[in-house]
Amino acid sequence: MEVCDVKTTTFSRTPFVFRIAQSLDRRAWIALVVAALVAFVLIPLLHLAIPADSIFHLSDYFITLGGKILCYAIVAVALDLIWGFAGILSLGHGLFFALGGYAFGMYLMRQIGRDGSYQSDLPDFMVFLGWKELPWYWYGSDSFLWSVLLVLVVPTLVAFVFGFFAFRSRINGVYFTIITQALTFAAMLLFFRNETGFGGNNGFTDFKRILGFSITSPETRVVLFALSALALMLTLVFVNYLMKSKFGRVLVAIRDAESRVMFLGYNPLWYKLSVWTLSAMLCAIAGALYVPQVGIINPSEMSAANSIEMAVWVAVGGRGTIIGPVIGAGIVNLAKSWFTMSFPQYWLFFLGTLFIVITLFLPDGLVGLWNRLRRMRGGESA
Amino acid sequence: MSDTQLTLDPEVGDGYGGPGEVFGHTLRPGELDLSHKVILYLEDITVSFDGFKALNKLSLTIDAGELRCIIGPNGAGKTTMMDVITGKTRPDSGRVFFGQTLDLTQMTEPEIANAGIGRKFQTPTIFDRLSVFENLELAMKADKRVRSTLRARIDSEQQDRIAETLDLIRLGDQAHRLAGLLSHGQKQWLEIGMLLMQEPKLLLLDEPVAGMTDDETERTAELFLSLAGRHSLVVVEHDMAFIRQLGGKVTVLHEGSVLAEGSLDMLQNDPRVIEVYLGR
Ligand SMILES: Nc1ncnc2c1ncn2[C@@H]1O[C@H](COP(=O)(O)OP(=O)(O)O)[C@@H](O)[C@H]1O
Ligand SMILES: [Mg+2]
Q1: Quick check: CB of B19 below 6 Å from ligand 1?
Q2: Ligand 1 atom 26: residue of nearest CA
Q3: Buried (b) or exposed (e) across A191-201, using 16+ Cβ within 10 A?
Q4: Ligand 1 and B51: CB distance under 6 A
Q5: Are residues A277 and A366 in the same domain?
Q6: For B18, how many CA atoms within 13 A lie in the half-sphere containing its CB?
Q7: Does A259 contact chain B (CB < 8 Å)?
Q8: From first to last of its 382 residues, what are the pLDDT tens digits of chain A?
Q9: Residue A35, domain member (yes or no)
Q10: Is residue A24 a part of any domain in this protein?
Q11: Could you tell me which of B235, B32, B213, B5 has the C-alpha nearest to residue B120?
């Protein structure tokens, strides 16, 4: 059944970029410009141009932590897209993040060249396993562009195939969530095996270069940081556009009453599948930006706890809001780095408590709390 | 593709043919046959849940432009019948024809909706977290595939249609309120409004006036009467005053099949009907 004869719908012929620009209001533009100045000018200057002994100097530690949190923020926005707006909780986003990281990590491993401990053309772990040549899926991994392509295509394809069968079978709610968790777990076991060809439980590490530049130089760090900031900003602009379109309203409608959506003539399968696949792709991009900044990727990125933590970021910031997940990812991860330095043994207790408190008392997260406070103040002054 | 074969003749039917008028007519799928002006034809539908037959060889014909009421005790299978028509439940056996050629048992829910069947659920089902206006916007007849919703914009003609519907369902001053905040009766009306925005040829209404005040019920009856002719309506209800006001042919469902069919007066004097339903 094709639905063609429809005279009532009009499409705007405005080019895509303009339509995206139109979707931003004044406040959003100001926020974007400020964020761009901070990320592309202020922070690079404070890191590169201010001497290390000045109190205004931003250390390597800060740049790396900041870049890492920006990547996590992309993940949080991606997860919110599927959970906050479409109402589908995934506890498998660690998988897409890790796949993006591994795909780009292959390139970083090849960039080590003969500077590894065994001075071989092959990555160290392959020499250690006695392998004589690269497995077929490593071919092309010395090319930057090919690796970027892998980052964009492989996790997206995995998500598409998984999502297609899950959504077509109408697997919903907690069942879907459990299956995503199982999928991630299975992938983790697979990547733990040395024979899989991704470095077993050590994963990839000891990177030296990226596009020929030293991966630990201040300039490289700043560029990676700025790229992460750019990726996050583009993600936010695009998600904002999606959510203001009719497409976004159909997603919210699916969350509220999926059967009603179907009886109105929308096929939820394609809506869920497209937003699910997009979400996975954003995660993969975040993973690829993350790995060169932290210098390691291993199967523990696919652990259950990791994917659960991602959901906590979204819950803390505020589900179904555009900026909430960014705030959540920022606050929880800053808290985490403080805890892991001061009392590492209490981090999981803190995380668990935080999750319970948020779920019970702040179902709309910090953004919801902020809105409620503002309304209360507005009510007093009125 | 279905548009041509389902063109309705506005002159058609107050719904009074004698019972069985169109039974026994052989439908040939794929062939356009408007000689009987039938819009919906259920043929020997059986649905069982764990051996229990919710529908038992149910056959039913609805004429184009007809306003049909369906009554029957709780558990008679009225909602299940609507589930079968709209593709939510697949029958164990039997077929459902929309017009002469579309076999609904072979189609998915969205396909059936796009073919021109709209449905109101027994409990009002609307989108709580969208505004009243947005609820109507999503329901509006349009290309409902992903790539069109990504770029759809509301034009002034559509704006007018939504405004018209808002007036009709008396929610004009609530357009930008979240639908979840409406009263029960208002939700019922919003769902009816959504149905109208779909511009369906056949409307299935499952207990549409449940929870409405007398005044609201009366207005709903007027609305349905104004729709009949241009649309075909199947209304499931318990409210006898409401059914009397609608005045069309009434079908009594009992234990998953048709017990009797005719005018309300006739049925109220039918001993079998009195026994299972009206007499209680
Ligand atoms: N999904 C289901 N699973 C099991 N039994 C069902 C299901 N849906 C309906 N039934 C049973 O089928 C019978 C008909 O239900 P229904 O069509 O809802 O009746 P009505 O709408 O006429 O009150 C009832 O006995 C009900 O319990
Ligand atoms: Mg019912």
Answers
A1: no
A2: B75
A3: bbeeeebbbbe
A4: no
A5: no
A6: 2
A7: yes
A8: 344 444 444 555 678 888 888 889 999 999 999 999 999 999 999 999 888 888 888 898 999 999 999 999 999 999 999 999 999 999 999 999 999 999 999 999 999 999 988 899 899 999 999 999 999 999 999 999 999 999 999 999 999 999 999 999 999 889 999 999 999 999 999 999 999 999 999 999 999 999 999 999 999 999 999 999 999 999 999 999 999 999 999 999 999 999 999 999 999 999 999 999 999 999 999 999 999 999 999 999 999 999 999 999 999 999 999 999 999 999 999 999 999 888 888 888 888 898 889 888 998 899 999 999 998 887 655 4
A9: no
A10: no
A11: B235
B4 touches chain A (CB under 8 A): no
Residue of the CA atom closest to atom 5 of ligand 1: B49
Q: Hey, what are B245's tokens?
A: 């006001």
* Domain closes at, from A253, A281, A302: A302
Q: Of A153, A148, A96, which Cα lies nearest the Cα of A287?
A: A96
Q: How is residue B233 written in tokens?
A: 């309506």
Which two structure tokens, joined as six digits, stand for A32? 């974007």
Residues A279 and A372 in one domain: no
Please tell me if the CB atom of residue B78 comes closer than 6 angstroms to any atom of ligand 1. Answer: yes
Residues A352 and A251 in one domain: no
| Cα end-to-end distance, chain B, whole Å | 47
Please count the residues of chain A. Answer: 382
Q: Are the Cβ atoms of A264 and B144 closer than 8 angstroms?
A: yes
Same domain, A311 and A262: no
B220 and B192 in contact (C-beta within 8 Å)?
yes
> ∠ CA A190-A195-A197 to the nearest 5 degrees?
85
Domain that holds residue A363: 304-382
Of A267, A302, A337, which residue is a domain's last? A302
CA of B93 to the centre of ligand 2 (A): 21
Q: Both A221 and A362 in a single domain?
A: no
CA distance B124 to chain A (A): 10
Q: Does A256 map to a domain?
A: yes
Chain B residues touching A263 at Cβ < 8 A: 86, 109, 113, 118-119
- Kindly report the nearest CA distance between residue A2 and chain B, in angstroms: 8
Q: A223 and A359: one domain?
A: no
**Quick check: B116 pLDDT over 50?**
yes
Distance from the alpha carbon of residue A139 to the mean position of ligand 2, in angstroms? 61
Judged by CB atoms closer than 8 Å, whether chains meet at A1 and B143 is answered as: no
- Are A72 and A65 spatial neighbours (Cβ–Cβ below 8 Å)? no
Stated pTM of the model: 0.88
Q: Is residue A37 part of a domain?
A: no
Same domain for A314 and A293?
no
Q: Does A17 touch chain B (CB under 8 A)?
A: no
Classify residue B8 by its DSSP letter: P
Count of domains forming chain A: 2
In chain A, what residues touch B152 (CB-CB under 8 Å)?
9-11, 245-246
Domains and CATH numbers, chain B: 33-116+200-279 (3.40.50.300), 124-199 (no CATH)
ipTM: 0.86
Between the alpha carbon of residue A4 and those of residues A262, B180, B231, the distances in Å are 18, 33, 21
Q: CA-CA distance, A238 to A252, in Å (whole number)?
A: 17
Contacts of B173 (CB under 8 A, 6+ apart): none
Q: Is B141 on the interface with A (CB under 8 A)?
A: yes
DSSP string, B9-73: PTT--SS-PPTTSSTTPPP-TTS---TT-EEEEEEEEEEEETTEEEEEEEEEEEETT-EEEEE--
- The residue written with tokens 């869920």 in the block is A272
pLDDT of residue B21 exceeding 60: no
